[in-house]
Amino acid sequence: MARAYSLDLRERVVAAVMAGRSCRAAASTFGVSVASVVKWSQRFRATGSAAARPTGRRRPRLLAGERDWLMARLAAIPDVTLRGLVAALRERGVVTSYGSVWRVVHDAGVGFKKTLFAAEQDRPDVARKRQRWKRHQGRLDPARLVFIDETPAFAGAGSGRRPT
């Protein structure tokens, strides 16, 4: 994005227009667009200053009204996922996105960390298969195991080209 013109230039252009020059003549003299001269003059008449407006204004959070409910939900169900929160909000009639919920939760300082063990380990079918694998592991001959490297190796590291 281009930088804003300096306040000095803006003030000189506006002063020329206020002294009676046309916007086209002032634009030609100072080497700026006619649209800029018109906008600066309008801003000067409305606010008393031709200064640029601040950039990067913070947008209000659309889910600010649901923040307390989200924090209560996280306290009640600490292992809920962000997608679960989106679904729960949808049930409440609030249509939102994953990113919006993440921003509210992140602003509150709540983080989502992965657990040490996958939740699937608690399922009976997975627990059975894990037990069977542990029993079978001892029968494996390490000399017969083969390591397969699935990392792609391309010509010229970092070149972005694939070998032909």
Which terms summarize this structure?
7 helices; 0% strand; 2 domains; mainly alpha; 164 residues; single chain
Folded structure, characterized:
- The protein is mainly α and 164 residues long.
- It folds into 2 domains: 7-47; 60-135.
- Helix content is 48%, strand content 0%.
- The chain is elongated and about 95 Å long.
- The mean pLDDT is 84.
Question: What is the H/E string?
Answer: HHHHHHH
Q: Could you tell me the number of beta strands?
A: 0
Residue fraction in strands: under 5%
Oligomer: single chain
Largest sheet data: none
How many domains? The number is 2
In round numbers, the mean pLDDT is 84
Q: What percent of the residues sit in helical stretches (DSSP H or I)?
A: 40-55%
- Structural class, from secondary structure content? mainly alpha
Give the helix tally: 7
Low-confidence stretches are none
Taking all Cα atoms into account, the compactness measure Rg is 31 Å
Form type: elongated
From the N-terminal CA to the C-terminal CA, the straight-line distance is: 40 Å
Topology:
Layout: H1 7-18, H2 23-30, H3 34-47, H4 67-76, H5 82-91, H6 98-107, H7 124-137
Helix pairs in contact: 1-2, 1-3, 2-3
